[in-house]
Design a protein that fits this description.
It is built from 21 helices and no strands. The protein is an all-alpha fold. It has three domains: about 90 residues, Annexin V, domain 1; about 120 residues, Annexin V, domain 1 (Orthogonal Bundle); about 90 residues, Flagellar motor switch protein FliG, alpha-alpha superhelical domain (Annexin V, domain 1, Orthogonal Bundle). α2 packs parallel to α5, α9 packs across α11 and α12 crosses α15.
Length: about 350
Amino acid sequence: MSIIAAYDAESGAHESGGARAAILLLALGSQGAARILKHLSPDEIRIIRESAASLPTVGPEHIDEVVDDFQSYFKKGAALTGPGKEMVELLENALSREEYVSIFDPDSRDPALADLLDNNREGDVWEAITAMEPVPLAQKLLGEHPQLVAIVLARLPPEMASAMIREFAPAMRNDVMRRILTLKPLQYTVQTVLEGQIRRNFVTAGGDTEEGGSHAFLAEIVNRLDKDSSEEVLESLRASRPKDAEALEKLLFAFEDLPSLPLKSRLTLFDAVDAEVMVRALRGAGPEIVELVLSALGARARRMAEAELKQEVTLQKAEIDGARREIAKQALRLAGEGKLVLREQLED
């Protein structure tokens, strides 16, 4: 039984479940309705539009009754003077053209696209991709075109994208990074086809993006690479896209860049860093970095840190690298909040 039919059977109101659902969607408006429509089947959406066409003028008190009945907090005071016409307009705004045609004009829809639409109702393919292990997924992508790889990486959390890109050879890695900077939103049909292919090949089997946003995303990935790998990416960009390389460099910061921090910024940073994380990050660091960090501490905190560092402990390289990335992450966060600057020359 559909959601609407089930509600129709339980409701004691004089309208059908479809009519009351139509009133609710119209009260929500296009944006709110879009979140609900994507969970309904084509048959349910047809029922709603047909029900709206038979509705008379709906007063605000009736809207409140329906909204309360659906246990929603959205209310609209104005009357619905033409529910049938308004529902058509709402659906046209809330659905893509391809979805609208596939539901209401089946004779003219693309059968292949309709199949893909039904397939994609199984769930968000990107949520499924994000739930996968990064290294095996990277191995699966090795034989794919770099443009496809760039599209996939751009939709993943930076931590996962960074773990994956470490699996690529330098040439492929640099090519993919360049492509991420120039990605544009895909047309709906192209994206639908792409998501269907990704689901079949990788999941089942196992608005224009602003330039600043692309740089920030790329920086999130590069900041998680080791120094040699990040420098390879920058060198590649400097040769082919110097302006992008310059913009990206301003967003990069690693533990090894601590000497570039002005003294005031170092004091701010290490006041925010947990002492245990700081000591772990200093294990194996050069004397210059160690002194640089210790000099940013108060006398008592410095004595405690020095005592900790004199103790012999066994740490995995991954633990040390993780602590250093945490410090770099804190520096970037504080810089983003305007509480410190990353490089001396940026200060007035």
